[in-house]
């Protein structure tokens, strides 16, 4: 890597020497301030450019250039110009930037063209704010280190601003991490103040002036790179946005050479293994819930979560510390309240959600965002603040028939600056919401219906087989038995009525009502015994009831006997009352009958119970 | 009848005894209700069964709630890996799968050396759910397969209990088996092992066979043949069925209970079951070629002889002639059978009994002859305490149940008695076979409980009825009460019955409490994740295994070969996705012995062995920091024994001092310098594990280690997990020759 970039540099210098072409246009940069922040693995460059049109024609385009080895690693570029005057009233307006063809510019230079908000007429000035983020420009050197060594990286830049325009005054400051600085290129006007390295100011530079510098310093940042990140955002109109993120994380710093010693890694007070990182911090949206953190082989129990009303912070610790070159894969998932992210505008719904990963300082080499919309969504369109590759898919989830439309967005080399909101517009009618519950309900309905049909219907294959016939007969016998039982029960009930009338008699002495009751029970019992006869006949004739019919007959006989006894008792009591005998006298006379009645009743109940058990 | 909402039977009884005035009205409703008792009982039974079904399922979910939805132990990881393969690649690929990731460099023909029942079952469940549009992950299906089948087992237990005794016994059996620790130990969620479905299949086969014997129906016999097929496809324990059923038939024949029903049931089940079982590649022709299956065939032939004799007896009226004929036939039949067996064995057509089978019949056999079987903890003879732990009150109910069974001997009860006694013997020989005995113990105990409770309640109920009729008569009669006292044949019978009932319910509730406790405390730990209590009562999780396996998966070359003791083979291939030298399928003893030899040799000797096996990484499990006792140092003697069994250069006494295994200063020099010792204790001497103890204090064994200055020449530490439980070493390439 290092060698190739050195070759790059040489080529670049050569090219610049050859192409000392006149200025692109008549623009002049009156003042250039560059600040490079290398505290994380990303080199973040902010530039303030004061542009003056010194020519005669008005200019509407501004050219930004980077050396190719930087330009190839450019992850993010935004140009704004500040409006208003005075420092307090500045408001930034983003300008559109596009990659331009490098006509007339050496190949070793990447060219971007900025469309100015309004043509810059002669003598006018304009201030541009450029923010650029580069990945992979902090090269680990040495490339392989042992566990105990510190992590040194190298940054290559130019002390002078590379531009097709002439520069009147420029300065560069590099913000280094607060740690060891191994070496840096010393030019004139080079100053190291604390952890800040300053070059310049340099005055009146030609266009395409270039003076390479190299800074070699210790970096304590986590060089966490997601080689592949798939974010799946699933919208459920039942009130949830489910986000699932699959990370393939690798440590892109200097690779570990030799042993990994746990003893040294855990040693106190001087643990060795500064180049490794143990944690990643994810800042999730507020009100995130049901958070999980797992991988292919299960849940990872080492994570901590803190949440308040503004944010949810998830500190995730991979299963093992990541040294240079080590990889890991994990998945985090969380639910978000739908109302925070889904809105309606002009009859369309739109999901407004952040594009990039919630993990801080993570570079993503390939990011795939899949927005899964509910089944039945139509007219899908996406707006993004930067260019992404779009496509559509279908995903099947629980209870889906047609599948859910999935919007797939792909982007390479994503840095935290890309964490801007994207909007996914679609149409969805609420009726579709009911389809899945209805499917479940109908499923269960069908299940129960089949159960009912199965129990009611006759599925025997041979309708004439002896077992089948026997079973039919037996069913019939059982039905008859039930009828017999119910009739006997009714008889017993009428007996109870008779007894009740006797009790009334002893209380009121009203013989007439008692006799009337007797009459009604008589007819009732007669009817019942008539009903009983055909049933008994059937039981006697049926062969499969042969072992029960004696019992049934016994039951009926007992019942008859009981009936007779009761009648006799009734007559005695009524006669006694008619003769105005004393209560004690009557009781004495029926005492023996009473005992028999009780005994009979007991027998009948036993028999009934026996029949019931069949 | 009608749509009145009725009070239940017992409630209306209670009203009757307490309030005679209300008697008439409630009597009516009670009477009209009686017609529906059948339906009520059915409803009650179904709801009890439903609740038991759910109970059996949720009692097994402790592990999911405590930890997570994950696969437990060792073998389940292999099953999970194969199921994953099956669902991804389809059945044919699975059937023809040659696995090059294990047993390097030999490989393993997976399709031909496993029982596919479990995987196919899980895959079918998975495919069905997907067809029904439930897109679940295969892991969830695998985790929940065992509880699901445990629930199904309760249903089978109910029907089995109903078949051998009555519905009451069936219900009790279902409840008992639902929560019996002996069964739960192998069927908690995540315990995705063959036994999970095999116990269901075992009980189902037995039930269908008993049903077939009871009814003489071909349909049931066919059902039991299919049940047997499922069992064969699921677990090697099918040998128990193919030996128990013939034994049972033999006992019936001897006790003169031969019948046409038995003939139909056994012949159908044996012939069809055998043909079906041959379709499983791992079993193949064993049914006709292996000594373990010969008993079944002998009984089958004996059945034919019996049938023939029966026919002859029917034809011949002369008893004397028949007696002679009987003698000649039986003698010649036995003679022919004996000769066939002898010739078969001698010619090698019939294979002799396997070591595992021998070790079942003779518990000391394995220890002397096959150290690899003896080294597995679940193959050890069972301690009394684990019987108590796994059966609790069933241990006392079992003899009572046997008593009831003997009191009412039928074909069915003879079967359950034989199943209970034989399986209990095997449970005593091997810890893991407690599982096989559990259904029998539950069923027999259920008979005891059900019969006792039934007797007691019937006592109570007759008493109540007499007092009822006494009160029906109303006040005024003093004779009724005298009659009640006359009826009581024994004094305090009712009170005694109540006391006994209370006692039974107390016992049963203790059983339920014990089972829940055992399930939650002892059997719900996945053993991959270890949990301990911290100083403040908080739970500390040691997730070192997965940490190490995941490190292997992510940070080693995809073709790296890992050498470890065979216990961790399945886990490394499933979770680490790397090739292993040996794994839990201990089919090649020599290969395992080679690894054992490498572990117990000096480093340079071991290096040659590892080079010859292309080993890139060596993984050891070490509990010295955490006090985790089932680590490789404690297993080390088995490695020496197994290695020494094949390579006599390894001698066990070299590693012992006066017959004692130690790791401290007094350990033997060979021990202190063998590879395993070095790998476990590399740089451990610099670590202080416990306050107030010298550095290098091994907490698992409670000693200060003897060799603190360990230098590795051919290996280097590649990774050690955060609690040092798993240590991985990289095998260095050979240095250039000068």
Automatic annotation (TrEMBL), chain A:
Bilayer topology annotation: Single-pass type I membrane protein
Summary of the function given for this chain in its UniProt record: Subunit of the oligosaccharyl transferase (OST) complex that catalyzes the initial transfer of a defined glycan (Glc(3)Man(9)GlcNAc(2) in eukaryotes) from the lipid carrier dolichol-pyrophosphate to an asparagine residue within an Asn-X-Ser/Thr consensus motif in nascent polypeptide chains, the first step in protein N-glycosylation. N-glycosylation occurs cotranslationally and the complex associates with the Sec61 complex at the channel-forming translocon complex that mediates protein translocation across the endoplasmic reticulum (ER). All subunits are required for a maximal enzyme activity.
Q: Where is the signal peptide?
A: 1-25
| Chain segments annotated as transmembrane | 437-455
Provide the GO biological process annotations: protein N-linked glycosylation via asparagine
Q: In its UniProt entry, what is this protein called?
A: Dolichyl-diphosphooligosaccharide--protein glycosyltransferase subunit 1
Q: Does the keyword Endoplasmic reticulum apply?
A: yes
What is the species of this protein?
Answer: Arabidopsis thaliana x Arabidopsis arenosa
The cellular location(s) given in this protein's UniProt record come to:
Endoplasmic reticulum membrane
Q: In which pathway does it act?
A: Protein modification; protein glycosylation
Summary of subunit composition and partner proteins: Component of the oligosaccharyltransferase (OST) complex.
Which GO cellular component term is one of those annotated? oligosaccharyltransferase complex
| Main location group | endoplasmic reticulum
> What family, per the record?
Belongs to the OST1 family.
UniProtKB/TrEMBL annotation, chain B:
- Tell me which EC number(s) this protein carries: 2.4.99.18
- Any GO molecular function: metal ion binding
Pfam families, alphabetized: STT3, STT3-PglB_core
Q: Where are the transmembrane segments?
A: 42-62, 109-129, 141-161, 167-184, 196-222, 228-251, 263-282, 294-312, 324-350, 387-405, 412-428
UniProt KW keywords = Endoplasmic reticulum, Glycoprotein, Glycosyltransferase, Magnesium, Manganese, Membrane, Metal-binding, Transferase, Transmembrane, Transmembrane helix
Q: What is its main location?
A: endoplasmic reticulum
What are the names of the required cofactors? Mg(2+); Mn(2+)
Q: Quote the pathway field.
A: Protein modification; protein glycosylation
The answer to whether UniProt assigns keyword Glycosyltransferase to this entry is yes
Gene Ontology CC: endoplasmic reticulum membrane
Where does the record say this protein resides?
A: Endoplasmic reticulum membrane
Q: Which InterPro entries match?
A: Oligo_trans_STT3, STT3-PglB_core, STT3_N
Reaction(s) the record says it catalyses: a di-trans,poly-cis-dolichyl diphosphooligosaccharide + L-asparaginyl-[protein] = N(4)-(oligosaccharide-(1->4)-N-acetyl-beta-D-glucosaminyl-(1->4)-N-acetyl-beta-D-glucosaminyl)-L-asparaginyl-[protein] + a di-trans,poly-cis-dolichyl diphosphate + H(+)
- Where does the record place the Oligosaccharyl transferase STT3 N-terminal domain? 48-444
Q: Does the keyword Manganese apply?
A: yes
Location of the STT3/PglB/AglB core domain: 562-619
Describe the subunit structure. Answer: Component of the oligosaccharyltransferase (OST) complex.
Q: What protein name applies here?
A: dolichyl-diphosphooligosaccharide--protein glycotransferase
């Amino acid at each position: 890597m290092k060698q190739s970039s050195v070759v790059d540099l040489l080529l670049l210098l050569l090219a610049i020497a050859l192409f000392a072409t006149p200025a692109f246009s008549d623009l002049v940069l009156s003042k250039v301030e560059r600040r490079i922040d290398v505290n994380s693995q990303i080199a973040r460059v902010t530039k303030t450019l004061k542009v003056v049109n010194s020519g005669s024609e008005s200019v509407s385009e501004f050219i930004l250039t980077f050396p190719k080895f930087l330009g190839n690693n450019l992850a993010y570029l935004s140009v704004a110009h500040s409006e208003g005057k005075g420092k307090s009233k500045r408001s930034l307006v983003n300008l559109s930037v596009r990659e331009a063809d490098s006509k007339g510019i050496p190949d070793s230079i990447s060219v971007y063209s900025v469309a100015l908000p309004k043509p810059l007429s002669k003598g006018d000035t304009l201030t541009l704010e450029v923010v650029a983020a580069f990945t992979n420009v902090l090269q680990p050197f040495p490339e392989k280190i042992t566990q105990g060594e510190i992590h040194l990286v190298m940054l290559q830049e130019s002390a002078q601003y590379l531009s097709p325009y002439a520069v009147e005054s420029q300065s560069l400051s590099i913000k280094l991490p607060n740690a060891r600085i191994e070496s840096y290129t010393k030019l004139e006007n080079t100053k190291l103040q604390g952890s800040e390295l300053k070059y310049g100011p340099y005055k009146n530079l030609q266009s395409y002036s270039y003076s390479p510098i190299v800074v070699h310093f210790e970096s304590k940042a986590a060089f966490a790179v997601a080689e592949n990140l798939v974010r799946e955002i699933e919208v459920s109109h039942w009130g949830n946005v489910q986000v699932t993120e699959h990370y393939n994380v690798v440590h892109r710093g200097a690779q570990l050479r030799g042993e990994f010693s746990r003893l040294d890694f855990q040693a106190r007070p001087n643990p060795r293994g500064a180049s490794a990182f143990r944690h990643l911090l994810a800042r999730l949206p507020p009100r995130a819930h049901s958070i999980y953190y797992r991988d292919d082989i299960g849940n990872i129990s080492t994570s901590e979560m803190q949440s308040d009303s503004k944010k949810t912070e998830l500190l995730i610790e991979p299963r093992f510390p990541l040294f240079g070159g080590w990889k890991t894969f994990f998945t985090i998932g969380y639910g978000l309240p739908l109302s925070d992210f889904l809105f309606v505008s002009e009859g369309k719904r739109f999901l407004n959600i952040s594009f990039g990963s919630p993990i801080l300082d993570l570079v993503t080499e390939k990011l795939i965002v899949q927005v899964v919309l509910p089944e039945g969504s139509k007219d899908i369109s996406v707006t993004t603040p930067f260019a992404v590759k779009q496509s559509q898919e279908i995903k099947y989830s629980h209870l889906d028939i047609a599948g859910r439309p999935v919007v797939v967005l792909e982007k390479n080399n994503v840095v935290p600056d890309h964490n801007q909101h994207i909007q996914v517009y679609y149409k969805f009618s609420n009726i579709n919401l009911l389809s899945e519950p209805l499917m479940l309900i109908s499923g269960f309905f069908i299940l129960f219906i089949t159960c009912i049909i199965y129990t009611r219907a006759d599925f025997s294959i041979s309708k004439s087989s002896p077992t089948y016939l026997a079973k039919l007969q037996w069913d019939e016998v059982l039905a008859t038995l039930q009828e017999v039982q119910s009739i006997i029960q009714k008889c017993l009930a009428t007996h109870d009525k008779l007894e009740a009338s006797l009790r009334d008699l002893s209380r009121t002495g009203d013989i007439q009502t008692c006799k009337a009751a007797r009459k009604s029970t008589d007819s009732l019992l007669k009817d019942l015994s008539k009903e009983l006869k055909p049933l008994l006949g059937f039981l006697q004739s049926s062969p499969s009831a042969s072992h029960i019919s004696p019992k049934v007959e016994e039951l009926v006989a007992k019942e008859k006997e009981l009936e007779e006894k009761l009648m006799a008792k009734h007559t005695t009591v009524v006669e006694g009352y008619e003769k105005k005998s004393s209560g004690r006298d009557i009781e004495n006379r029926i005492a023996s009958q009473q005992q028999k009645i009780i005994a009979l009743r007991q027998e009948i109940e036993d028999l009934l119970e026996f029949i019931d058990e069949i | 009848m009608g749509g009145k909402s009725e009070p239940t039977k017992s409630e209306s009884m209670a009203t009757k005894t307490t309030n005679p005035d209300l008697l008439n009205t409630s009597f009516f409703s009670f009477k009209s209700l009686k017609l529906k008792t059948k339906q009520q009982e059915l409803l009650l039974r179904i709801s009890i069964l439903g609740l038991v079904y759910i109970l059996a399922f949720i009692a097994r979910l402790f592990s999911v709630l405590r930890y997570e939805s994950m696969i437990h132990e060792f073998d389940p990881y292999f099953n999970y890996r194969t199921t994953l393969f099956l669902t991804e690649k389809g059945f044919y690929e699975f059937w023809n799968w040659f696995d090059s990731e294990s047993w390097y460099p030999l490989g393993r023909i997976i399709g031909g050396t496993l029982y596919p029942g479990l995987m196919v079952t899980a895959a079918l469940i998975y495919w069905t759910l997907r067809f029904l549009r439930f897109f679940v992950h295969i892991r969830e299906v695998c985790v929940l397969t065992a509880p699901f089948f445990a629930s199904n087992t309760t249903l089978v237990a109910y029907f089995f209990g109903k078949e051998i005794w009555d519905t009451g016994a069936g219900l009790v059996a279902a409840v008992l088996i639902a929560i019996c620790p002996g069964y739960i130990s192998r069927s908690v969620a995540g315990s995705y092992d063959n036994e999970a479905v095999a116990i269901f299949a075992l009980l189902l086969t037995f039930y269908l066979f008993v049903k077939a014997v009871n009814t003489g129906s071909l349909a049931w016999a066919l059902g039991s043949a299919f049940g047997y097929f499922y069992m064969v496809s699921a677990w090697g324990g099918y040998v128990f069925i193919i030996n128990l059923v013939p034994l049972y038939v033999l006992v019936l024949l001897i006790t003169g209970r031969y019948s046409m029903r038995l003939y139909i049931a056994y012949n159908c089940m044996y012939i069809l079951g055998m043909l079906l079982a041959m379709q499983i590649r791992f079993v193949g022709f064993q049914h006709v070629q292996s000594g373990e299956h010969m008993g079944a065939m002998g009984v089958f032939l004996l059945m034919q002889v019996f049938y023939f004799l029966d026919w002859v007896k029917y034809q011949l009226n002369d008893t004397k002639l028949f007696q002679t004929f009987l003698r000649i036939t039986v003698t010649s039949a036995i003679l022919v059978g004996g000769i066939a067996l002898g010739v078969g064995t001698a010619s090698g057509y019939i294979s002799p009994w396997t070591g595992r089978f021998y070790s079942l019949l003779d518990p000391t056999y394995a220890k002397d002859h096959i150290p690899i079987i003896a080294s597995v903890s679940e193959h050890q003879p069972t301690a009394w305490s684990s019987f108590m732990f796994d059966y609790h009150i069933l241990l006392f109910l079992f003899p009572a149940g046997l008593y009831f069974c003997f009191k009412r001997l039928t074909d069915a009860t003879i079967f359950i008695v034989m199943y209970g006694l034989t399986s209990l013997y095997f449970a005593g020989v091997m810890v893991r076979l407690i599982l096989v005995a559990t259904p029998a113990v539950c069923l027999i105990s259920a008979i005891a409980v059900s019969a006792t409770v039934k007797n007691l309640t019937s006592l109570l109920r007759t008493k109540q009825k007499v007092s009822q009729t006494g009160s029906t008569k109303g006040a005024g009669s003093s004779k009724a009460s005298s009659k009640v006292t006359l009826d009581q044949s024994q004094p305090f019978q009712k009170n005694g019955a109540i006391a006994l009932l209370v006692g039974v319910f107390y016992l049963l509730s203790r059983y339920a409490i014990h089972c829940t406790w055992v399930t939650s405390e002892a059997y719900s730990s996945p053993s991959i994740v270890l949990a301990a209590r911290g100083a403040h009562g908080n739970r500390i999780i040691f997730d070192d295994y997965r940490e190490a396996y995941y490190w292997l998966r992510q940070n080693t070359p995809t073709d790296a070969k890992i050498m470890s003791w065979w216990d961790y083979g399945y886990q490394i291939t499933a979770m680490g996705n790397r090739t292993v030298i040996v794994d839990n399928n201990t089919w090649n003893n020599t290969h395992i012995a080679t690894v054992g030899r490498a572990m117990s040799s000096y480093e340079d000797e071991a290096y040659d062995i590892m080079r010859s096996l292309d080993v890139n990484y060596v993984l050891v499990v070490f509990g010295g920091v955490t006090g985790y006792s089932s680590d490789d140092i404690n297993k080390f003697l088995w490695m020496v024994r197994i290695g020494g069994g094949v390579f006599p250069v390894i001698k066990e006494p070299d590693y012992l001092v006066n017959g004692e295994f130690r790791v401290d200063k007094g350990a033997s020099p060979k021990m202190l310098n063998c590879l395993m010792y070095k790998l476990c204790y590399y740089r451990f001497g610099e670590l202080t594990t416990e306050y107030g103890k010298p550095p290098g204090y091994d907490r698992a064994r409670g000693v200060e280690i003897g060799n603190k200055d360990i230098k590795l020449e051919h290996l280097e530490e590649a990774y050690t997990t955060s609690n040092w439980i798993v240590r991985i070493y990289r095998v260095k390439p050979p240095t250039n020759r000068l």
